[in-house]
Write a structure and sequence with these properties.
Blueprint (H helix, E strand, L loop, with lengths): L53 E6 L1 E2 L6 E3 L2 E4 L11 E8 L11 E10 L1
Parallel strand pairs: 4-6
Antiparallel strand pairs: 1-5, 2-3, 3-4, 5-6
Length: about 120
């Protein structure tokens, strides 16, 4: 198909179906796949805690929405509910998941890996 747009430096194949990079975008030949690199941070030496984990200790508070529990400005997600209850003094280990949306409307989401009374 011929493009209705004139060729430009950023779109050299416009107007000419055979122009541009050979094979890129052609059926069966989408061109090179984008590369992704993800670095892994090392764990904590001498500890069994994985990298990125945090331990919070304090008193659990009820949130404004039902079944929402807060600890030091963090919204506790997961963990044993028999330990995590309003008024309980606890120590929780887990990680912040700031990009997670919740219905609790308060606190930074914190994914609980372990919880125990403090």
């Amino acid at each position: 198909m011929i493009s209705p747009f004139p060729p430009t430096p950023s779109n050299p194949g416009a107007g000419d179906p055979g122009a541009g990079s050979p094979g890129a975008g052609a059926p069966g030949n989408p061109g090179p796949a984008p590369s992704r690199s993800r670095s892994k941070s090392p764990g904590i030496p001498g500890s069994s805690r994985p990298a990125g984990t945090t331990t919070l200790t304090g008193t659990v508070e009820a949130g404004v929405e039902p079944n929402c529990l807060l600890l030091d400005g963090h919204l506790l997600l997961g963990g044993p509910r028999e330990v995590l209850r309003p008024g309980a003094r606890v120590s929780v280990t887990g990680r912040v998941q700031a990009d997670l949306m919740t219905t609790c409307q308060q606190g930074t989401p914190f994914l609980v890996d372990t919880a125990k009374t403090a």
